[in-house]
Amino acid sequence: TLAFLNNQYLPLSEAKISPMDRGFLFGDGIYEVIPSFDGRIVGFSAHMQRMENGLRALEIDNPYDRDGWKSIMQALLERNNQELGDSVGVYLHISRGMQLTRSHGYSEDLTPTVFAFAFKIPPSHSSQPEKVQGLSVSLAKDLRWQRCHIKSTSLLGNVLHFQEAKRGGKHESILFNSQKEITEATTSNVFIVEQGIVRTPPLDNQLLPGITRKLVIESLINENIQVEEVVITAERLLNADEVWLTSSSKEIAPVISVDGNQVGNGEPGPVWRKALLAYDLYKFS
Ligand code: PLP
């Protein structure tokens, strides 16, 4: 595939950065993953807004305006279309840049390193909901840092949680804080359904403000399906009728088992199906 590195398009296998890049040494950077279907980008302005917020939080200058980012994305989509097909995610990464002394403190005049590439994502579930397999997830104490609302490239906490779930044969891990309240999963946000009402934890520093989460909430409101942002305890999650995970590459994925406990009747639920259709109608709007 063709990638983008510091204003240049080049084969992904030839992209190289300095080992003194602060992204490499410290995970000092921000990233985004933006989905597209048939060349149409989902949630572009919301993804840009989140990236701008993250860059501001890290005091990294945004190297491009929104039009600049859009042209990079479109070029990657067009030039990789043959190879990647119609369901494609674009990864954008901005690190603070290269600094020739290793110090936690950063110089304020570094040139950010910009890297982007496109990759295949699964086709949208909405075309064939009956073929969707429910996910099995584990439940674990959230051991990450207290700025999970920043989409930072420092992902070690998420990586360790995810690998532990994988080792246990699970697809994902849903995390709870020291009050036993659900925060999110390692690569996705969490929703539950109780007696037809959809609920998801409110945004704060403990979770990423997922763009899929945002679009799902808006699409449910559009279809008059009741949705609430409320604290959800782990116990409540274990008794929910349905559990879903949302992310740019998963869209809305039904969970059928949490920590070995069956969710509902052990199959993707009816509200999930409705939500999937509502989201599909809404996602390009
Ligand atoms: N939470 C975490 C920790 C994530 O890494 C992600 C995305 O990968 C999400 C939530 C979902 O965010 P989005 O819907 O913007 O992909």
From TrEMBL:
It comes from the Bacteria. GO terms for molecular function: transaminase activity. InterPro entries: Aminotrans_IV, Aminotrans_IV_CS, Aminotransferase-like, BCAT-like_C, BCAT-like_N, Class-IV_PLP-Dep_Aminotrnsfr. Keywords: Aminotransferase, Pyridoxal phosphate, Transferase. The keyword Transferase applies. Its cofactor is pyridoxal 5'-phosphate. Belongs to the class-IV pyridoxal-phosphate-dependent aminotransferase family. This is D-amino acid aminotransferase.
